[in-house]
């Protein structure tokens, strides 16, 4: 078995892949369940992150409703339902959990990256031979995932270490005066493209929504993937524009936290909602 593997050429090898022959260690190869388990774990961690991001995008875009709405969402994650004072460490705990899944997912994905120029050429030859759109999608997913190593980590580190600085003015100041908007712009495209391709590939891989005609099913899933990307990219861009606009308006007072009821000159006065008013922010 080991012998036959050693001598067999990689698929779609041709000339390009000749220097990439694999040298196997001189021991018997035994079938292992670990590659399958790791694959399952990668799918599960990807699914958890994708579901988290859908919810996250709706929370972040609550700024489109009003400053007050985003303020209340941010305070909710600081335990406003249970504590009299905001508890930003609760946000850090959630971010820590998301960061752990993020790192696990990235580590599992590393197994699939071409690790040398030879492997890259084997993949290029494979892609050329297959000429299948899903193979191209895999390649896009690989590069957007690579970008997320850096872009996602910067964002998560900020949320982990400065959980008290999440709020209408705080976030808008970070995005505009803290010059984070270019990072968020790239992060938004990378994460939405990566996430939608990831969900599409999960559906194909694990046989979700199977019907009698696989061609029709694949076409429908592709349409769903494109609509998903367009919706969340659109929502994300409009949301980012709202933060930038607020950040520009608040630039002269950057660093000043949002307090419910107090408004910037020229802004509409928010209507106080029913119930007890929230305590003014003390953090940041
Ligand atoms: C628990 C973890 C997370 C928290 C608490 C969080 C929180 C936030 C907040 C408050 C914003 C608004 C801007 C700001 O205040 O800086 C934001 C924006 C954003 N976050 Fe996260 N985030 C988390 C995880 C992630 C992850 C894992 C990703 C993707 C890898 C991500 C992608 C984005 C993107 C793309 C934006 C810009 C949204 C837009 O343009 O509409 N976030 N996040």
Summarize the main sheet. none
Portion of residues in beta strands equals under 5%
Q: Return Rg in Å.
A: 24 Å
Low-confidence stretches: 1-17, 268-276
CATH topology: 3 helical TM bundles of succinate and fumarate reductases
Please write the string of helix (H) and strand (E) elements: HHHHHHHHH
- Would you identify the CATH architecture? Up-down Bundle
Helical percentage? 55-70%
The CATH superfamily title: Fumarate reductase/succinate dehydrogenase, transmembrane subunit
Structure, explained:
It contains 9 helices and no strands. It has 284 residues and is mainly alpha-helical. It has one domain (33-253): Fumarate reductase/succinate dehydrogenase, transmembrane subunit (3 helical TM bundles of succinate and fumarate reductases). The longest helix has 37 residues, at 214-250. Protoporphyrin IX containing FE (HEM) binds at residues 53, 56, 60, 91, 94-95, 98, 102, 148, 152, 155-156, 159, 166, 171, 174-175, 184, 187-188, 191, 236, 239-240.
Characteristic terms for this protein:
binds protoporphyrin IX containing FE, single chain, 3 helical TM bundles of succinate and fumarate reductases, disordered N terminus
SSE topology:
Layout: H1 2-7, H2 34-60, H3 67-77, H4 89-110, H5 117-130, H6 133-161, H7 168-175, H8 181-205, H9 214-250
Helix pairs in contact: 2-4, 2-8, 4-6, 6-8, 7-9, 8-9
Residues 53, 56, 60, 91, 94-95, 98, 102, 148, 152, 155-156, 159, 166, 171, 174-175, 184, 187-188, 191, 236, 239-240 line the site of protoporphyrin IX containing FE.
């Amino acid at each position: 078995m080991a012998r036959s593997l050693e001598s067999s050429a990689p698929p779609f090898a041709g000339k390009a892949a000749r220097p990439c022959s694999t040298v196997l260690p001189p021991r018997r190869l035994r079938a292992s369940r670990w590659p399958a388990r790791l694959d399952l774990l990668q799918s599960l961690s990807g699914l958890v992150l994708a579901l988290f991001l859908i919810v996250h995008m709706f929370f972040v875009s609550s700024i489109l409703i009003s400053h007050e709405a985003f303020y209340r969402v941010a305070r909710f994650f600081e335990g406003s339902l249970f504590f009299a004072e905001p508890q930003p460490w609760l946000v850090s705990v959630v971010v820590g959990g998301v960061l752990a899944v993020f790192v696990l997912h990235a580590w599992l994905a590393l197994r699939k990256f071409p690790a040398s120029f030879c492997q890259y050429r084997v993949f290029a030859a494979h892609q050329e031979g297959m000429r299948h759109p899903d193979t191209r999608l895999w390649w896009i997913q690989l590069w957007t995932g690579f970008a997320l190593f850096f872009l996602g980590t910067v964002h998560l580190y900020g949320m982990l270490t400065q959980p008290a600085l999440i709020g209408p003015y705080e976030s808008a100041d970070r995005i505009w005066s803290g010059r984070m908007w270019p990072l968020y712009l790239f992060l938004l495209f990378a994460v939405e493209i990566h996430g939608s391709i990831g969900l599409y590939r999960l559906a194909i891989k694990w046989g979700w929504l199977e019907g009698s005609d696989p061609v029709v099913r694949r076409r429908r899933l592709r349409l769903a993937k494109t609509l998903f990307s367009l919706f969340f990219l659109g929502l994300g861009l409009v949301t980012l524009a709202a933060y930038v606009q607020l950040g520009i308006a608040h630039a002269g007072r950057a660093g000043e936290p949002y307090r419910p009821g107090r408004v910037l000159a020229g802004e509409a006065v928010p209507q106080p909602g029913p119930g007890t008013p929230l305590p003014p922010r003390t953090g940041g």
